[in-house]
């Protein structure tokens, strides 16, 4: 079990987002309450029930984060904003419950860790070439998460491996994964050249875009 408070908070919030993306009503309520959360006001009932993996409540009854997570308010606000954006796109596209479409929305919202969390259960059930492709998407999310943590070597290696796996994508995939993979490879080269050292420095984020119709 994890012990670092930032990782426990990250995982707890990511779990709520994944459930919300799948259409879970209680998780959606918690995410709505998170979007309007203020340390100066009591959390909504769904938010007040959230616990980390070690069963620590995330929020005090009067509003602030509990002592274990004190100092992480900025992270919570950032995640709340990104969750709201991603869920709006998911609903707009009618993608609720579609892990790959939800992962695309999460990617566009900068929720790179959550891309991994959305896709891993699907990857574990797949076999054959599509399993490799899904692992490529998971690696892409992990790579950008590493980049947010200033782990350049880890990001670069994962981007290149993701690009290799996504090159195996078939034309039946609704997203243009081959193009996405090429763009990931280009980003890996920019990192190697010292032109990108953090996600904030990416001028054009690789896009998980739909395949162009013939």
Describe this structure in words.
Helices cover 59% and strands 0% of the residues. It contains nine helices and no strands. The chain has two domains: 1-97, no CATH class; 99-214, Orthogonal Bundle (Hyaluronidase domain-like). The protein is globular and about 50 Å long.
Please report the total strand number as a whole number.
0
What general form does the structure show? globular
Number of helical regions: 9
Instruction: Write down the CATH topology of the largest domain.
Output: Hyaluronidase domain-like
Brief description of this entry?
The protein has 214 residues and is mostly helical. It has 9 helices and no strands.
Based on the model shown, name its key terms.
single chain; mainly alpha; Hyaluronidase domain-like; 2 domains; globular
Write the layout of secondary structure elements.
Blueprint: H1 5-21, H2 25-35, H3 45-48, H4 73-92, H5 99-108, H6 112-125, H7 129-148, H8 152-166, H9 177-192
């Amino acid at each position: 079990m994890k012990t670092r408070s930032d990782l426990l908070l990250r995982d707890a919030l990511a779990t709520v987002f994944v459930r919300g993306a799948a259409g879970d009503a209680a998780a959606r309520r918690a995410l709505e309450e998170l979007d309007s959360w203020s340390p100066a006001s009591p959390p909504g009932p769904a938010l007040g029930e959230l616990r980390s993996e070690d069963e620590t409540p995330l929020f005090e009854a009067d509003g602030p984060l509990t002592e274990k997570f004190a100092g992480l308010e900025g992270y919570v606000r950032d995640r709340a904003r990104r969750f709201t954006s991603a869920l709006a796109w998911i609903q707009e596209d009618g993608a609720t419950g579609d892990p790959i479409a939800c992962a695309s929305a999460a990617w566009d919202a900068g929720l790179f860790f959550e891309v991994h969390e959305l896709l891993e259960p699907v990857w574990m059930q797949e076999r054959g070439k599509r399993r490799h492709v899904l692992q490529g998407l998971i690696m892409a999310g992990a790579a950008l998460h590493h980049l947010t943590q200033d782990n350049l070597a880890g990001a670069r290696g994962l981007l290149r491996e993701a690009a290799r796996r996504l090159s195996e994508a078939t034309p039946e995939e609704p997203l243009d994964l081959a193009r996405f993979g090429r763009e990931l490879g280009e980003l890996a080269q920019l990192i190697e050249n010292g032109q990108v050292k953090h996600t904030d420095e990416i001028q054009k984020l690789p896009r998980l875009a739909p395949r162009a119709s013939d």
